[in-house]
């Protein structure tokens, strides 16, 4: 089992748990929760694979399906423990977007897209599982609310990836540093309550 | 006209009618109703074809477009008759998911996916037309409400398909039995009011 | 820079501005506005490219990304000027669907789809950027409300395209006339307040 796959599975676990926890608020049945956990964890990667015309990963490699099912069952059983761990939920979600961003950037690179498109692909991989989850739950996607630094952390992480390529660093190190930039940016932004200002027009004007 | 195509068209008719009937509640114009009927009847298959990287069926074979248009026109003209037929609507919808599940499983098999993925493909084919319809109408997809056994009927039908392959039965028989399992499971669940229990966490805890 | 590309860029500018203006009402941050502008302007074309299994245009040709970014920045800076230009917003949106319809029809033709499917592809290209924008903002897509002639203008424009092919006209002329049919149809319909009648069933009946 290589480095890339382990990282990918950690991301699936992280997003499945955040998916289970948000869908349980909607009083769904276990199968509904499983589907939402599944969409949250592989939705971004699926959209990425469709866009870059690659085979959809979870359809060829059963490990993703198994990890989502096992994680969902554990998360449902231990839900009363999990609900007291709000900070852990945030942590899982943040680690997830960090991992997925860099996975997406690398997938884009291997399909020979230009850096700006690779960063977009990384951001889509990281953010659209959550967007699809929110659409399915009929909510305005969290991504578009100005409550949190989210997509911009992915963009900074993706930019770091291409910056680091100028130095002769190992692939693993670039991966870890770029992912950490995403995780640290979002964590600091939440801790210090930093947000982008909202821009709006008064529709009554 | 082969067996497979006839079954497919019956599914399109069933889903178009259920699409027309649910969109008419939203006071749409005839074109809006047609688009919703179209998405409801070919949306699940389109998502399936994108995921397994097959050509999208309705774009190459005009019969689907014609069937949706003719069915929609008839359903609009005879809407006053149809509205008294709530049970028929349920019947059409149920037959539709039964047919689409098995069609999806077979498409997955012919693209050489593993059984668990084929069952997922069948369930997506059957359920996501309705999910897309509900998203377009800005409602929480019916699929995720705990009101009815729905996706689990598809999963049982898909499982039956693979179980029956161990016996030396004809393709048509396996098709009919698996589809019937979906239809009967859902019908019995509605008749006896059987549901999966909802799992939730008290968000105020 | 050929004729096709210039027209395409004008469409991106038109839809980006309409995307910025509608997303600013939701008090999003600049990045959220950029993403909505992006989805509004390339979403229809992306869905089209996925359906016809063509490479997604904006991922290979960076000009689209650049145009959306520059347009969004300008639209945000000059938002106070833009808000007084409600008629211009309508104009931009209408020009956008006119251009996109014909671009979609031509893409469908070059992939050798039948005329009715090409018209559907043109309508999807023109309308689904707006549909995706509305779904992301958690609103019922404008397309399905009976307030305005919208999709039917695209269908008429697409039909005009195939009608004009019987006469020996230049490609550019067919393009301009068909696109104008879309723009004029929608403008006249709004000016004279022409709508399709809504069809509905009384759900209490």
TrEMBL record, chains A, B, C:
Keywords: Cell membrane, Membrane, Transmembrane, Transmembrane helix. Its main location: membrane. InterPro entries: Gly_transporter. GO terms for cellular component: plasma membrane. The keyword Acetylation does not apply. Residues 6-79, 91-165 form the Glycine transporter domain. The chain crosses the membrane at residues 6-24, 31-50, 62-78, 90-107, 113-136, 148-167, 173-192. It is found in: Cell membrane. Belongs to the UPF0126 family. This is Uncharacterized membrane protein YeiH.
